[in-house]
TrEMBL record:
Gene name per UniProt: leuC
Assigned EC number: 4.2.1.33
Metabolic or biological pathway, per its Swiss-Prot or TrEMBL entry: Amino-acid biosynthesis; L-leucine biosynthesis; L-leucine from 3-methyl-2-oxobutanoate: step 2/4
Organism expressing this protein natively: Aquimarina addita
Pfam families linked to this entry: Aconitase
Name of the protein described by the UniProt record: 3-isopropylmalate dehydratase
Family matches, as SUPFAM superfamilies: Aconitase iron-sulfur domain
Domain of life assignment: Bacteria
Every Aconitase/3-isopropylmalate dehydratase large subunit alpha/beta/alpha domain range: 7-455
Cofactors (names): [4Fe-4S] cluster
InterPro entries: 3-IsopropMal_deHydase_lsu, Acnase/IPM_dHydase_lsu_aba_1/3, Acoase/IPM_deHydtase_lsu_aba, Aconitase_4Fe-4S_BS, Aconitase_4Fe-4S_dom, IPM_dehydratase_rel_enz, IPMI_cat
Length: 469
């Protein structure tokens, strides 16, 4: 029978089918971080269970970590406790732990792929919704709750009903200045934040084939923001090229054997999806959000839609605009901005810093902008230095912080103050997401860079054209 990529990976990991119930599903790789694992370990202990496969479990600290002075003790007591619990639990159970200051430390969804832990055809979970990122490699990867974290620790399995399957095809060429982030924000703006609820998405078409692995990770990362359980892209030469030679990637015969399997991982021609959507890459502009969910996005040259032009929910729509202090019909371009955040598991990779640098090179940071540039990991930080990007951004008046989730969510010291407007390359713009009362515009690293040098929301194409002319 014909199978989708998703079916192939899923079916090969089901170790027991429960009649009219969920599948018992084997997990190859389990990532843990300081927010959702401490309670799971407490549960494990209270039930006198142990960690079944410590070697399949990987711990990194990211959410509660400061992004300056990481060599000093963490001041916030709550954060310090979470970090300590992660370290102690990892030590107690023999789990590899990349804590604060460790050379391999960084955001869980950045360090997993960087170290060859994320592989095609694998099943990967973490107590974190953006685990969908790892689907970029042709893995089935999704976020789980704390009780499931405990279940995976003790059994390496979880019970899951098989989601429905959706394929999103984007073909055609992307326009100048249009990045993977824009493709994802465009799709979410079309589907809304619940448009893929109950589905696991496969992204297909030239636009994704032509993307780098970093770009594919950005897209898969945002799958969760349209309600999907996860998103994935079939592996290809780019995938193998990316993973080859990384710390935990198989080598020698194991690599050859793995390659044999990986090369079977694509959707059969006549396989059927529960839902299939098609978009044209040429229709996509650099995107920006104007509201308080990631689906409230528009092409940057557009105006904020009128409530009556949208289907349903006008009360919440108006509430959202009033929180943002915006009006229907407002243009996004030219809005004065206070903060620019480049980072997160969506856009904290080397390619994102290259894009940012391509715009700020030879210019100066605008006076009214506070910019937080936060690499997703020490590996990204090192590449920024080695490639000369640090020199470019320093020359333009920016500083580089140390790795972590930072201003993506208000769980550490990097909080956007109340009322302030931030252009952010992260993935969520909910009320207070970046700090109580903060206001967030989600956009690509190019839009963030253009805004950082002009001080107002700016279409990066205007600066890129000038740079090229
Ligand atoms: C803290 C964690 C559980 C959370 C998530 O699940 O996504 C965070 O990473 C986020 O981005 O909101
Ligand atoms: S960077 Fe943001 S989205 Fe990613 S794991 Fe951290 S808090 Fe969650």
């Amino acid at each position: 029978m014909s199978k989708t990529l998703f079916d192939k990976v899923w079916d090969s990991h089901v170790i027991r089918k429960i009649e009219d119930g969920p599948d018992v599903f084997f997990i190859d790789r389990h990532f843990i971080h300081e927010v959702t694992s401490p309670v799971a370990f407490l549960g494990l202990k209270s039930r006198n269970n142990s960690v079944l496969y410590p070697q399949r479990t990987f711990a990194t600290a990211d959410h509660n970590t400061p992004t300056i002075n990481q060599h000093l003790p963490v001041e916030d007591p709550l954060s310090a406790n979470q970090l300590k619990a992660l370290e102690e639990n990892a030590a107690e159970w023999g789990i590899s732990h990349w804590g604060l200051g460790h050379q391999k430390n960084g955001i869980v969804h950045v360090v997993g792929p960087e170290n060859g832990i994320t592989l095609p055809g694998a099943t990967i979970v973490c107590g974190d919704s953006h685990t969908s990122t790892h689907g970029a490699f042709g893995a089935i990867a999704f976020g789980i709750g704390t009780s499931e974290v405990e279940m995976v620790l003790s059994t390496q399995c979880i019970m899951q009903p098989k989601p429905k399957k959706m394929r999103i095809n984007v073909n055609g060429a992307l326009g100048f200045g249009v990045t993977p982030k824009d493709v994802a924000l465009y799709i979410i703006s079309k589907l809304t934040t619940s448009g893929a609820t109950g589905y696991f998405v496969e992204y297909a078409g030239d636009v994704f084939r032509n993307m780098t692995m970093e770009g594919r990770m950005t897209v898969c990362n945002l799958s969760i923001e349209m309600g999907a359980r996860g998103g994935m892209i079939a592996p290809d030469e780019k995938t193998y090229e990316y993973i080859k030679g990384r710390a935990l990637t198989p080598t020698g015969d194991a690599w050859d054997k793995a390659m044999e399997y990986w090369q079977t991982l694509s959707t059969d021609d006549d396989a059927v999806f529960d839902k299939e959507l098609n978009f044209n890459g040429a229709d996509i502009e650099p995107m920006i959000t104007y509201g308080t969910n990631p689906g409230m996005g528009i092409g940057i040259s557009n105006i904020i839609p009128n409530a009556e032009d949208l289907e349903g929910g006008s009360a919440t729509y108006k509430k959202s605009l009033s929180y943002m202090n915006f009006l229907e019909g407002d243009s996004m371009i030219g809005k004065p901005v206070d903060f620019v955040f480049l980072g997160s598991c969506t856009n904290g990779r080397i390619e994102d810093f290259r894009a940012f640098a391509s715009i700020v090179k030879g210019k100066k940071k605008a006076q009214n902008i506070t910019a937080w540039l936060v690499p997703g990991s020490h590996e990204v930080e090192a590449a920024i230095k080695n490639e000369g990007i640090l020199d470019i951004i320093t020359e333009a008046g920016f500083t580089l912080r140390e790795p972590g989730c930072s201003a993506c969510l208000a769980m550490n010291d990097d909080k956007i103050p109340a009322g302030k407007l931030a252009v952010s390359t992260s993935n969520r713009n909910f009320e207070g997401r970046q700090g109580p009362g903060s206001r967030t515009l989600l956009a690509s690293p190019l839009v963030a860079a253009a805004t950082a040098v002009t001080g107002v929301v700016t279409d990066p194409r205007t600066l890129l054209e000038k740079a090229i002319a």
